[in-house]
Amino acid sequence: MNVGIIGSGTMGSGIAQVAATSGCKVKLYDTNQNALDKSKNALEKVLNRLIEKGRIDENEKSRIQGNISYVNSLKDLNDSNLTIEAIIENLDVKQKVFADLETYVSDDCIIASNTSSLSIASIASSLQKPERCVGIHFFNPAPLMKLVEVIPAIQTSKEVLDASVETITSWKKVVAVAKDTPGFIVNRVARPFYGESLRVYEEGIADFATIDWSLKTLGKFRMGPFELMDFIGNDVNYTVTETVFTAFYFDPRYKPAFTQKRFAEAGYLGRKSGKGYYEYQNGMSSAEFISASAIKDDELAQRIFDRVLVMLINEAADALFLNIASAEDIDNAMTKGVNYPKGLLAWADEKGIDWCVNQLDALYDEYHEDRYRCSPLLRKMNREGKTFFC
Ligand code: NAI
After folding, report:
1. Angstrom distances, CA of residue 376 to CA of 313, 314, 322, 357
2. Of 29, 96, 126, 141, most Cβ neighbours within 10 A?
3. How many other C-beta atoms can be found within 10 angstroms of the C-beta atom of residue 139?
């Protein structure tokens, strides 16, 4: 299969590696020659590291490298069966590239976008044959993260959706099919992990380290929310939150936090700037700092963990209620896309649907904010004594 990748930055390079490893002939295109050179060098380093770890040998390295060619004209992608675009997150620029690309490729070439925040319908509308357009959303780093969200636009044909799922599955990824709505699955369902933790902090209930410690200890999350925001970058994470909030017509459930906005404005971006919610220059890792300085009060930790968890469960249940994806795909998305220790719907079954409803109702009673409204699905399941999976 011939795969064209547009944009050789972080995501395009990773996707090219995945496709080439699976035996596809990849053409990686970028307008910037430096970006192409950088991508080529980065792949060399990644493959050398895999050799050092004994995961691949020299032959495999040559095979993967031999499957990728680096091109600087869009026209060179003319023999592609599938193209995946991973350029700058700007609708006008993407639409222009898609319209140009369509003049070069054959009628049955699938044209996909790796966009995180734009609607696939809006990107597809730039094509003469919009039914060939689909969202294929990888996670960073693409070679390591198992999940890929596949997003049909309202224009996408069933054949194109089925063929995309089949191809991505053959690349040894776990596919979750998601509706073309803001944040798809992961970037929607994960919002309360950050948002509710920031709210707990803003209310003065606990400091960053204590909140992180609560979620790591009781929830077995690999990183606490503040540690993770520092890892992602407060600028990037804040922008995603603000974009999702705007795209949901300002639903208060997705409201961004001033705390994070100020951190981003101050340049306290996290690991990449040396300072975020934690300091990264004092020799202590955030994980060490958290375990050393968190207030280890079991009752407080339980209260924080329960509150953040139930808000995550509510978001996952509402995504199912609104047919964003199947229950299996929602749980897979969170465990394979962002390494959650358990799927949120399975977690709801474990805690009990009545527990979820009671927790949410208690929060609503306390605050009278729409943010804490219980998903109608949880309420109905509770009335009918149902569970998600058992
Ligand atoms: P990046 O900034 O690392 O790479 C973008 C590349 O596109 C650059 O090399 C640039 O030279 C090239 N480019 C820009 N305009 C172009 C054009 N008109 N034609 C050809 N090449 C062009 O960006 P990154 O992070 O790889 O993101 C790319 C896309 O993937 C965006 O849509 C982003 O929303 C999405 N995405 C990003 C993730 C991430 O964690 N970075 C995760 C999932 C999706």
Report:
1. 13, 10, 10, 10
2. 29
3. 22
Torsion 182-116-150-332 (CA) sign:
negative
Q: How far is CA 148 from CA 8, 128, 170, 355, in A?
A: 18, 26, 12, 32
Instruction: Answer whether 9's CB lies under 8 Å from 40's CB.
Output: no
**CATH of the domain spanning 187-390, picked from 1.10.510.10, 1.10.1040.50, 1.10.540.10, 3.20.20.100:** 1.10.1040.50
225-261 pLDDT, tens digit per residue, is 999 999 999 999 999 999 999 999 999 999 999 999 9
Phi-psi label, residue 233: left if phi above 0, alpha if psi -120 to 50, beta otherwise:
left
Q: What is the pLDDT of residue 357?
A: 98
For atom 35 of ligand 1, the residue with the nearest CA is: 115
**Residue 283 scores a pLDDT above 90:** no
Q: Is 368 a catalytic residue?
A: no
User: Does residue 137 have an active-site annotation?
Assistant: yes
Catalytic residue among 149, 196, 227, 315: 149
Specify the long-range contacts of residues 41-45, CB closer than 8 Å, at least 24 apart.
42/13, 43/13, 43/16, 43/17, 43/68
Instruction: Quote the CA–CA distance of 205 and 81 in Å, as a whole number.
Output: 54
Q: Which of 188, 322, 203, 190 is nearest to 244 (CA)?
A: 188
CATH among 3.40.50.300, 3.90.580.10, 3.40.50.880, 3.40.50.720 for 2-177: 3.40.50.720
Q: Where are the domains of the chain?
A: 2-177, 187-390
Mean pLDDT of the chain: 97
**Residue having the nearest C-alpha atom to atom 30 of ligand 1:** 86
DSSP string over 27-60: EEE-S-HHHHHHHHHHHHHHHHHHHHTTSS-HHH
**Residue 129 scores a pLDDT above 80:** yes
User: Which residue minimizes the CA distance to atom 23 of ligand 1?
Assistant: 9
DSSP track, 106-159: -TT-EEEE--SSS-HHHHHTTSSSGGGEEEEEE-SSTTT--EEEEEE-TT--HH
- Which range has the worst mean pLDDT, 14-18, 24-28, 114-118? 114-118
Q: Would you call 197 a catalytic residue per the annotation?
A: no
